């Protein structure tokens, strides 16, 4: 259970922050940048939810919760010490990745195959989901970069990879199952 009685602590006033294992690191460290970008993804999902209803809103709510799980995962670097921790650290699981894959497959089943790249846009929800997609891809790139120098849960990287795909397919669904997709016309303005 998280209890936040005081919001500011002044412990970050000199450019450092605490990781989930208590270690202090620079606020610009690769790990903080990676999970900070996951937080940005979550904020973009919150914006998208302003336009979502029904199953889409419910799925986005699940994703927001997963993104907090992902942030908790990324902020605790020492997976090899998980068994020694005071409490079991939260890690993204393969089941969360599989759920995204299942949802992507279900949404994609109703869509015609793409014959062109599409431009981000269409409905307000689709445009917001494209923003979610691009920020989640940035979070993925940063997590992959982090994994070149520190241990990162492989399921966390997979989750981010599938998440950008989820947002792409959901944007097409939000564009009247692709009927309102804005197609790219190569060289149209030459």
Automatic annotation (TrEMBL):
GO molecular function list: ATP binding; corrinoid adenosyltransferase activity
Family: Belongs to the Cob(I)alamin adenosyltransferase family.
InterPro entries per record: CblAdoTrfase-like (IPR016030), CblAdoTrfase-like_sf (IPR036451), PduO-typ (IPR029499)
All residue ranges annotated as the Cobalamin adenosyltransferase-like domain in the record: 7-173
Cytoplasm keyword on record: yes
UniProt-listed Gene3D superfamilies: Cobalamin adenosyltransferase-like (1.20.1200.10)
A cellular component term, taken from the record's GO annotations: cytoplasm
Cellular compartments annotated: Cytoplasm
Reaction(s) this enzyme catalyzes, per UniProt: 2 cob(II)yrinate a,c diamide + reduced [electron-transfer flavoprotein] + 2 ATP = 2 adenosylcob(III)yrinate a,c-diamide + 2 triphosphate + oxidized [electron-transfer flavoprotein] + 3 H(+); 2 cob(II)alamin + reduced [electron-transfer flavoprotein] + 2 ATP = 2 adenosylcob(III)alamin + 2 triphosphate + oxidized [electron-transfer flavoprotein] + 3 H(+)
Any one of the GO BP annotations: cobalamin biosynthetic process
Keywords: ATP-binding, Cobalamin biosynthesis, Cytoplasm, Nucleotide-binding, Transferase
Protein name in the entry: Corrinoid adenosyltransferase
Keyword ATP-binding applies: yes
Biological source species: Roseovarius bejariae
A Pfam family of this chain: Cob_adeno_trans
Pathway: Cofactor biosynthesis; adenosylcobalamin biosynthesis; adenosylcobalamin from cob(II)yrinate a,c-diamide: step 2/7
Enzyme Commission numbers on file: 2.5.1.17
């Amino acid at each position: 259970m998280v209890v936040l009685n005081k919001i500011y602590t002044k412990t970050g006033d000199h450019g450092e922050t605490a990781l989930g294992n208590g270690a202090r690191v620079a606020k610009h460290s690769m790990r903080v940048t990676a999970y900070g970008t996951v937080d940005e993804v979550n904020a973009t999902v919150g914006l998208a939810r302003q336009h979502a209803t029904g199953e889409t809103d419910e799925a986005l709510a699940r994703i927001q919760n997963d993104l907090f799980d992902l942030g908790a995962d990324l902020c605790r670097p020492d997976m090899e010490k998980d068994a020694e921790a005071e409490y079991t650290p939260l890690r993204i699981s393969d089941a969360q990745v599989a759920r995204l894959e299942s949802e992507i497959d279900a949404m994609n089943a109703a869509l015609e195959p793409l014959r062109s790249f599409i431009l981000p846009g269409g409905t307000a929800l689709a445009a917001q989901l494209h923003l979610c997609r691009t920020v989640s891809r940035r979070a993925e790139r940063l997590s992959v970069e982090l994994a070149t120098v520190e241990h990162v849960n492989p399921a966390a990287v997979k989750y981010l990879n599938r998440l950008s795909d989820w947002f792409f397919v959901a944007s097409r669904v939000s564009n009247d199952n692709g009927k309102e997709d804005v197609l790219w016309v190569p060289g149209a303005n030459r």
